[in-house]
Specification:
CATH class of the largest domain: Mainly Alpha
Distance between the termini: 19 Å
Radius of gyration: 22 Å
Largest sheet: none
Structural class: mainly alpha
Number of strands: 0
Strand content: under 5%
Number of helices: 17
Order of helices and strands: HHHHHHHHHHHHHHHHH
CATH topology of the largest domain: Growth Hormone, Chain: A
Shape: globular
Oligomer: single chain
């Protein structure tokens, strides 16, 4: 690649990072602003939940369609369209009127935000792949994931400050980012590759409904309960529809997703690793944020700094992982990365009850190093295994797998956290001679995101002891969750060690 081409590739990479950065920031920034939004608009508890879940549900359900559409209609065109949709929906979220329409308005445009992200992200990744030769993709994608992933931690940090100005600012901040992204796209002029083909409408409907119902059941499990027929009906119904989708795709002439690609062992293993990695990775931001605020007593902005410790290790290791991928292949980074992440999560969890960042930071960095060695190499290696006319489709597959893993992690580990915290506070209440129900009520208040760490004045001494125990009891519950994260990464290590092939992709498929 000549100097001019290399320079343009870097500009394209910068453009795509700006484009997707909005989606990463939004994963965490909105959760920080929820109390302020609820106070200003008087939203219902269900409405608050759907402001967060609606975005994630839309994103999960439409990723596969967005990826295939990018290949058919053009990668650059879909990135631009996705940026415009996302930014417009963000502006309208910020312009939510006060009154009877506020809750519906905000939820609808959050869902549209998710749709914009689902259209944009696969196309952006495909553009980055096209901009770099196979021998340089590891390094390029490492930069992409390190910066874009690090912005997830910026959400709580930026949100803490923006909410002090106005909660609407957390949505409006996307507008200048979108303008910069569009300018860089115009300046760099990435290739608008398109490979016209019929759109598989039946396949699109099946995977959208299947992912939608399965993720809905996982999201609502904390509200409906795991013993609710509605929870299992959604999950089971979604899985049945997804099974029907697989059967249909294997028989149709122009499938939405060419599932034969999973016959490539490396592609299949990469996706299994990504699925397992996402079970702890995305939920980590929510659980670590809760721990920092409830157990450590930190503010929202301080919580962002706590998460940035993780990304110090993540960003550094991502670069090393990318270099290893380019030199010798993904296995050299992914196998040790899974092992390091498992050890890091375990030791981080083990240190949580010390209630001190100084006793945790090195284990936080270690966990970040492990995840950094895995995420970009596994993702890039999977995409290197497909032909350039299917980059968007392959990205849609990897992102669908990743989102399903993160939804499963949030649901299962979230339920473990809630149940363990309730059990701990009930035991503390019982030890102090008061009914267990008092501890259970306090735990329910924390799980609903209200009153965490707050202590009413003039409580009876035994009850005050239960309130005083919240930081430690919540840390104990968090420790169990982090042990679960470590166990998942141990499974990923075994899968990578046994099934991941050695060597690298030498040239484009």
């Amino acid at each position: 690649m000549n100097q001019s081409g290399a320079k343009n590739s870097k500009l394209i990479l910068a453009a795509m990072i700006f484009a997707v950065s909005m989606t990463f920031i939004d994963q965490t920034i909105v959760a920080i602003a929820i109390p302020s939004i609820q106070d200003d608009l008087s939203l219902s508890a269900t409405g608050v939940q759907w402001i967060i879940n609606g975005y994630l549900l839309s994103l999960s359900a439409l990723f596969a369609f967005g990826g295939r559409l990018a290949d058919i209609a053009g990668h650059r065109r879909m990135v631009v369209l996705g940026v415009v949709i996302f930014a417009t929906a963000s502006a309208l979220c910020g312009a939510t009127p006060t009154g009877s329409l506020d809750e519906t308005w905000l939820i609808v445009f959050r869902v549209i935000q998710g749709a914009g992200a689902a259209i944009m992200f696969p196309a952006a990744l495909a553009i980055v792949l096209n901009a770099f030769p196979v021998s340089e993709r590891g390094k390029a994608m490492a930069i992409f994931f390190a910066i874009a992933g690090g912005l997830t931690a910026v959400g709580p940090l930026a949100g803490g400050y923006l909410v002090e100005i106005d909660w609407r600012a957390i949505f409006w901040v996307n507008i200048p980012v979108a303008i910069i992204a569009l300018f860089l796209i115009w300046k760099s002029k990435p290739a608008d590759e398109k490979h016209p083909a019929p759109i598989d409408n039946t396949g699109t409907a099946l995977i959208t409904l299947g992912m939608g119902f399965a993720v809905l059941g996982l999201q609502q499990s904390s509200v409906w309960g795991w013993d609710s027929p509605a929870t299992w009906a959604c999950i089971a119904g979604g899985l049945v529809i997804l099974a029907s989708f697989v059967r249909y795709e294997l028989r149709t002439e122009n499938p939405l997703l060419r599932l034969e690609i999973f016959k490539d062992r490396a592609f299949a293993v990469d996706n299994v690793i990504l699925f397992l990695l996402m079970i702890p990775f995305v939920p980590l931001f929510f659980f670590a944020s809760m721990y920092a605020q409830i157990s450590l007593g930190e503010s929202a902005s301080e919580t962002g700094l706590y998460l940035l410790i993780f990304f110090a290790g993540f960003a550094t290791a991502s670069q090393q992982g990318g270099r290893l991928l380019d030199k010798v292949g993904a296995r050299a980074a992914v196998v040790p990365g899974c092992a390091i992440a498992a050890v890091g999560f375990y030791l981080w969890g083990n240190s949580l009850t010390e209630l001190s960042v100084s006793d945790q930071w090195y284990w936080i960095v270690l966990a970040g190093i492990g995840v950094g060695l895995v995420l970009s190499p596994a993702n890039t290696d999977a995409l290197n295994r497909v032909s350039r006319d299917r980059y968007g489709e392959a990205t849609g597959i990897t992102q669908t797998v990743r989102n399903f893993g993160s939804s499963l992690g949030l649901a299962v580990l979230g339920s473990v956290l809630i149940l363990e915290n309730r059990s701990n506070l009930e035991a503390t209440a019982d030890k102090n001679g008061i009914p267990k129900e008092v501890g259970s009520e306090i735990a329910d208040t924390i799980s609903q995101g209200t009153g965490a760490g707050e202590s009413p004045e003039h409580l009876p001494a035994p009850v005050q002891k239960v309130v005083d125990a919240i930081p430690h009891d919540f840390a104990l519950a968090s420790r169990t969750v982090f042990y679960g994260m470590a166990a998942v990464m141990a499974v990923a290590f075994v899968v990578a060690l046994v099934r991941m092939p050695a060597g690298k992709v030498e040239e484009e498929v």
